[in-house]
Design goal:
Number of strands: 10
CATH topology of the largest domain: Rossmann fold
CATH architecture of the largest domain: 3-Layer(aba) Sandwich
Radius of gyration: 18 Å
Structural class: alpha/beta
Helix content: 25-40%
Order of helices and strands: EEHEHEHEHEHEHEEHHEH
Largest sheet: 6 strands, mixed
Strand order of the largest sheet: 1-2-10-7-8-9
Amino acid sequence: MNRSPNTILDTIGNTSLLQLRHVAPSNGARIFVKLESQNPTGSMKDRIALAMIEAPERDGRLKPGGAVVEYTGGSTGVSLALVCSVKRHPLHLVSSDAFSKEKLDHMRLLGAKLTIVPSDNGKQTEKLTKDMIREAHRIAGDMDAYITAQMENTDQLEAYTKMADEIWDQTGGHMDGFVQSVGTAASIRGISQRLREHDPRIRVVGVEPAESAVLSGGATGAHKIDGIGAGYVVPLWHDGIADELECVSTDEARAMAFRLAAEEGLFCGMSTGANVTGALRLAERLGPKATIVTIMCDTGMKYMKTFAQSLD
């Protein structure tokens, strides 16, 4: 008999792994998606929010009832708002109108205070990312608060090690490739490192926006894929993380997200659309016997208004 969770935080993780049946490569390779939409806020970021709060609680960097500050494109902020509400830490988040209104509203409903940094017509750019980071550090200094600073926080890597072990167990140790989009780079770094400890032959592919393919050596630019593509080489990234990089455009990511909803019943965000696009490309290269895993980063419910505009 399974023990009932003590709090909502005990339901984070242990998400399902699902094989795609209709959005599949033409050569017969298998693609599985890790359904992180099953986490309490509908996002994989619940895992790292818990890790980024519990680690400093354990070693004294974050005192009981201490205030927390973070900059966020949305999902990390929502997840931190969940964790901090349960653990009774006041939370101040810095975000932007470039990100979905649903996420901003969700943060507020979970008790977070928000500062909104204006964007250039809803575009995600290097300047916007750095403006948000700068403002969050200023607020944390003024409040004498603990800043989780997700772009450089290594506490979160432990959460992705656990996630990699889940994937390994769910595939029975039979996988040839792993594909994940790059935001802070924490997820692809933590998961790929652990998977390679299990099997060094696993091919790792990082996905970034085609409009801002800085990891691939391209110029920084603007795109509209929430949660990925900071516009510069982020601190947690290093060249050995991925064996190769795939560039996926905003339009390609959106089209794939819509396909996944219509053909697989998987209502996801655009970063997931980018992931599956990259996984399909890798599958064609690896051949018909390949098994590839990628991530359904979050639920499409976080983007209802944005997606509705695309359908008009």
